[in-house]
């Protein structure tokens, strides 16, 4: 049982245990939190995202990073349309689609992607499959099918430096010029099949910050403090809880477009966030909405401009795709053996103090001038679409300057 405690001068615990406890003795009852095809799909892509995040954290425990996993779900799903049924099953398992039993899976994903990219949510994301045609003959039916379903046509590469420019221009155009220089170097010869995902997020808070830009200390594990610009606001309405099992405080800050940003702030200055990482799931995050308390706090957040780029192929291999990578079986793309040699990902995220409301317009929340939440040491965060439950971004920030 997990108990969330909130410190308000005294401690009181939230009773939310009934729904989480399996029936004693009997078979474990699965609580169906996700009831529509869209929320189920959102939960599946989120769980894929948390798994990807954990793999990266395990491989690279001392690094800051940032991912927009749903763009990778989208790219790999486009790829799955070219796969044999065995290869499709292998991909679906890693993407968590095997839990869905959704015969309209592609339509559900298409609708979800279009919902989270609605104007006002602050997300630009792009996913596409590139195919090196110097090595293989590509089947037109595949290009047509993906374009018809997802509105983006897989693109043939000619080999050479022109491919880099072509890909970078496309990503830049899809992300409102915010994700620039997607590939920092040309693709290798015989690039094979290159799925890619890119995303940019800049949301608007519901409640604005009156102070912004002042440099402040950000504590760093095992290194001197960094100086980072902060935004601050007193009596800021958030949802807050302290999780003693995870050794962290959790705050949910509302953004426009029914988006929220959730911060996990360990009690200690530490780069070891293993406990938090391991607890993350679509269900755990969905439950936070019920377990956190609406309060007003003295809030300070770093003004962020983060950028991160990586090749996710090794992580996907660790997540259960190594067998598929050895034999991709992309029989609907080409009759030859097609290699996937990289899965490129680049994301950019910004925060700014802007919002539509001033503080003091939320009469429901507990007002207590002593309560504060200062994100001035290593933290994790996620950006979530509350309407569908989809995870849009997830990051671990040991020092904001690492991701400049
Ligand atoms: C990180 O924290 C976990 C849980 O507290 C602990 O088991 C693990 O040994 C720690 N890892 C490192 C590298 O200190």
Descriptive account of the structure:
Keywords: Signal. The structure is a single chain. With 404 residues, the protein is of the alpha+beta class. The chain folds into two domains: 37-202 and 306-349, Antithrombin, Chain I, domain 2 (2-Layer Sandwich), CATH 3.30.497; 205-301 and 352-403, Alpha-1-antitrypsin, domain 1 (Roll). Helix content is 28%, strand content 33%. The protein has helices at residues 37-59, 69-80, 85-95, 105-116, 140-150, 161-174, 274-279, 282-291, 313-326, and strands at residues 4-8, 10-13, 65-67, 123-132, 155-157, 193-202, 205-207, 211-220, 223-243, 248-255, 259-266, 293-302, 305-311, 344-350, 355-357, 366-374, 379-385, 391-397. Strands 1, 2, 3, 8, 9, 10, 11, 12, 16, 17 and 18 form an eleven-stranded mixed sheet that branches. A five-stranded mixed sheet has the order 5-4-6-14-13. Strands 7-15 form a two-stranded parallel sheet. Helix 1 packs across helix 9 (313-326), helix 2 (69-80) packs antiparallel against helix 3 (85-95) and helix 3 runs antiparallel to helix 9 (313-326). The two termini are 39 Å apart. Mean pLDDT is 90; it is low at 1-28. The protein binds 2-acetamido-2-deoxy-beta-D-glucopyranose. 2-acetamido-2-deoxy-beta-D-glucopyranose is lined by residues 272, 274-275.
